[in-house]
């Protein structure tokens, strides 16, 4: 069973990564300017993950394989921002506001800090 799950996630992730690469090549992002490709990919990924989760609520019988292939796999390879956004919406919907604020704030601040630290360590 785990092998099938790994294959579904891997295939979906590979396809998502390929789509991300192709879109980033089609939409020019110049240094120092707004990163349009990443922005479009992230917002598109958020729409896709929301749409897929919505479909899974309507058709739960086929949800597990679709979730592995398209949500964890494709959207995970396409953008992890979509998963981050989904998790925030789920915390909001469950009324877990403190976790929502902490998760969002810490993810942004620590994410920027981790990239900055990584850059500093390479100098």
Folded structure, characterized:
- This protein has 123 residues and is mainly α.
- The chain has one domain (2-121).
- The chain is built from five helices and no strands.
- It has helices spanning 2-26, 36-58, 63-78, 81-93, 97-121.
- Helix 1 runs parallel beside helix 3 (63-78), helix 2 packs across helix 4 (81-93) and helix 4 (81-93) packs antiparallel against helix 5 (97-121).
- It is globular, with a radius of gyration of 16 Å.
- The chain starts with a helix and ends with a helix.
Write the layout of secondary structure elements.
Layout: H1 2-26, H2 36-58, H3 63-78, H4 81-93, H5 97-121
Q: How helical, in percent, are the residues?
A: over 70%
From the spread of the alpha carbons, the general shape counts as: globular
How would you sum up the major sheet?
none
The total of beta strands comes to 0
Total domains, how many? 1
Number of helices: 5
Euclidean distance between termini CA atoms: 45 Å
The radius of gyration is 16 Å
Q: What's the helix-strand series? A: HHHHH
* Uncertain residue segments: none
Structural class per helix/strand content? mainly alpha
Strand content: under 5%
Q: What average pLDDT do the residues reach?
A: 89
Any descriptors?
123 residues; mainly alpha; globular
Short summary:
With 123 residues, the chain is mainly α. It has one domain (2-121). It has helices at residues 2-26, 36-58, 63-78, 81-93, 97-121.
């Amino acid at each position: 069973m785990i092998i099938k799950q790994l294959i579904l996630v891997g295939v979906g992730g590979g396809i998502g990564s390929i789509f991300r690469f192709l879109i980033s090549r089609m939409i020019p992002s110049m240094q120092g300017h707004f990163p349009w490709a990443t922005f479009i990919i992230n917002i598109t990924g958020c729409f896709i993950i929301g749409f897929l989760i919505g479909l899974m609520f309507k058709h739960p019988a086929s949800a597990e394989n679709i979730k592995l292939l398209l949500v964890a796999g494709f959207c995970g390879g396409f953008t992890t921002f979509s998963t981050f956004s989904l998790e925030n919406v789920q915390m909001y919907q469950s009324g877990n506001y403190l976790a929502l604020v902490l998760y969002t704030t810490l993810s942004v601040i620590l994410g920027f800090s981790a990239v900055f630290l990584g850059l500093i360590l390479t100098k």
